[in-house]
Amino acid sequence: MLTQQLKEFISAHFNDDTGTIILSASKYPDIDVKLAAIIIEARRKLITKVPEWAENTNLIYTGSLSTEQCSSSKTAIYKQNYCKNGIVADLTGGMGIDSYFFSKVNKKVIYIEKNRDLFYATVNNFQELGAINIVSLNEEFNTSNGDNLIRETLNNHDVNNLDLIYLDPSRRKTGGKRVHSINEYEPKIKELKDILFRYSDKILVKISPMADLKSVKQEVNEVKSIHIIAVNNECKELLILLEKGCNLDFEQIEIAAVNIKDKNSDEPIIFTPKIENDSKSTFGVPLEGNYLYEPNAAVLKAGAFKYLTCKYDIQKLEVNTHLYKSDTMVDSFPGRRFIIKEVADFDKITIRNLRKTYPKANISVRNFPLSATELRDRLKIEDGGDITIFGCTLSKGVKKLVTCTSVN
Q1: Alpha-helical regions (H) of 130-157
Q2: Is 19 exposed, middle or buried (0-12, 13-18, 19+ CB in 10 A)?
């Protein structure tokens, strides 16, 4: 537990540079200055990520890596949809964010973490937060001990089986190098899943948001669904649900794209690759006064490009240009919405006119030969303001600059 003296030191130096704090450790012989610096840095990161924890001055943190890799409260709350009023095992517990939020809607949670310091810090935090229905084990879960570990734990707590097993495997090798294949994660899902299916019909795995969706099915069988979670239009997590006995082709797997915002969420897009493949896009030319739509990051990652024109009364600008238009507003569209002010050719005259008319604007590109930075340099327009200029390609390769105002 944190002493009152240490908590007061952290409060007094919360806004100070942590490097300077550590260098001045000799001035505070009765204070664990290094621990204070670690806690300060962790709480700063958690202010926006997990504000419920950042606000609690009794919580302990052991290092920056676990804080950087932990789930946010928004994504952890989303995972509650996978299991409620049941028993969940979190086999790669880490800082315990997911375990904590699972515990708020379930009867019991089994939290397993191999790192001793991280484990005891997290157990302290669970106690401080009043999470009394979490069983905590300081063990490493792997193929050699996994069967016995789960069986003994269930027997010791008079539990027959688990309603959900959750894993957030490490995506780094020794030395910190990232790995990309699911079968290179630690622990290895392919080697463990047969053991895990003895105790639960459902396994939820958090993988890299950069993973290719089709490769997920190729690397791991029994995939029931894939959920892509964005927070404020930034892809944060990719969750795959494995279900015992499930033998779906990739075309049949349910894919859900969700963008969680500060005040509300975009409408979830739920489809299968077959639905997307069978959908037929409709196309239209953007005109002044039309509405323009840019799908959120989760939808773009999911690849629901043709399906959007079927689900909503909108038209795509071009096959490979993932922007859409409509004559009337679609309030439920999952992404950013704009009113088109003007559409102009990408040429010297347009560039000169835009520069004079809009000294400041947000620049974005879709299927365009220049990056957003390169287009900004070409336009010589400062970043910011209420105007957004899209560089995009229409049919027959025609390049256009579409100037819009946001209606979100």
Answers
A1: 146-156
A2: exposed
Domain boundaries of the chain, sorted by first residue? 4-61, 72-265, 276-406
Q: Residue 179 above 80 pLDDT?
A: no
Give the per-residue pLDDT at 329: 95
The pLDDT of residue 22 is 93
Q: Please give the angle made by the CA atoms of 166, 184 and 300, to the nearest 5 degrees.
A: 70
User: Which phi and psi (to 5°) does residue 160 adopt?
Assistant: -80, -45
> Is 72-265 a domain of CATH 3.40.50.150?
yes
* Domain 4-61 grouped into CATH 1.20.1070: no
pLDDT one-digit tens code per residue, 188-223: 888 889 999 999 999 999 998 989 999 988 888 899
What confidence tens digit (pLDDT) does each residue in 15-49 have?
999 999 999 999 998 899 999 999 999 999 999 99
Query: Is residue 53 within 8 Å of 31, Cβ to Cβ?
Result: no
For residue 85, give both structure tokens. Answer: 């009023």
How far apart are alpha carbons 94 and 115 in whole angstroms? 8
3-state helix vs strand vs coil in the chain, percent to 5: 35, 25, 40
17 contact partners, CB below 8 Å, separation of at least 6? none
N-term to C-term CA, the chain: 46
Q: pTM of the entire structure?
A: 0.92
Residue in 241, 251, 296, 301 with CA at minimum distance from that of residue 275: 251
The number of residues in the chain equals 408
